[in-house]
Amino acid sequence: MKLLISLLFITLSSSATEITFSQNRSEISTQEIEGIKAPILKTLAEVTQWADLVAVAQVDDIEYEQVRKLNAKGYAFLNILVPYKGASRDKPIAVIATGFEDNVCYYPDRVNEGERFLVFLKKAPGEFDNVYYGFKPFCQFQVLLSDLGQYILRTPIDIVKIPKDLIEPHQFNDPHAMVDATLWTSISRQKYADKYQCKIIETEDEFNKYYYLRYTKGVPIYKVRPLLKIKYKPRISSKQM
Asked: 0.85 cut: is pTM over it?
């Protein structure tokens, strides 16, 4: 089944500038995306080599079609904050997703300010400008803002191992650093807290108790960059030719 893509326009909340996603062809086959298998990668350097685009990006908007309240296909629109490979700062991109597999790259809806992620993405088949696809977890390693205004890669992260000597305790000033676990069972809360090294916070009012999980550890993004092992092409000036 083919999905017709017209020119996509979005307006970023931080700017009144109208952003255009241009296309090279009029159609793209979502079956091409569905048929691609997720890679087996264990280090950030391996993921970087596999990816066409590596960056810290922020969710601006999502447009997903749903079937029985489950995402079925659509796009997420991200704004590039810190480019590492194949990206430019403040140049928005679209990430196409289709299907119901657990590793399909659907992004969370924007609540308040959009979530930030370290993303590793591949160029989508069909040669559309700024349209990519990816697989979880590689397409959305969570990045949180610290109380000092630093971007912090939240740890631990799934599949990929980070050197323990780089992981530090942090205080986060980020609305996405807390998970509302009020409706979870006590066993589920404790299991999640143990896995992601969260602090369990309990509050109450006259009628109810509330439970939240706060992330506590991560790696400053400037310390993550060497782990990517990006190979930069040397610049050759006219004087060297």
From this structure: no
188, 182 Cβ separation under 8 angstroms: no
Percent of the chain clearing pLDDT 70 (strictly above): 81
Task: Indicate the SS3 state at residue 61.
Answer: strand
| CA angle (21, 24, 29) in 5-degree steps | 90
The number of helix segments (H) and strand segments (E) in the chain equals 4, 16
Alpha helices per DSSP H over the chain = 30-34, 44-50, 186-196, 221-228
Angle at 13 between CA 7 and CA 16, to 5 degrees: 70
| Per-residue pLDDT at 237 | 56
DSSP run (H or E) holding 4: strand 2-4
Helix, strand, coil percent values for the chain (each to nearest 5): 15, 40, 45
- The structure tokens listed for 232 are 């930069």
Task: Taking residues 186-205, report their average pLDDT.
Answer: 96
The H or E element spanning position 28 is: strand 27-29
**In the predicted structure, residue 135 carries a pLDDT above the cut 60:** yes
Provide the Cα torsion 167, 192, 58, 171; round to 10°: -50
DSSP state of 36: P
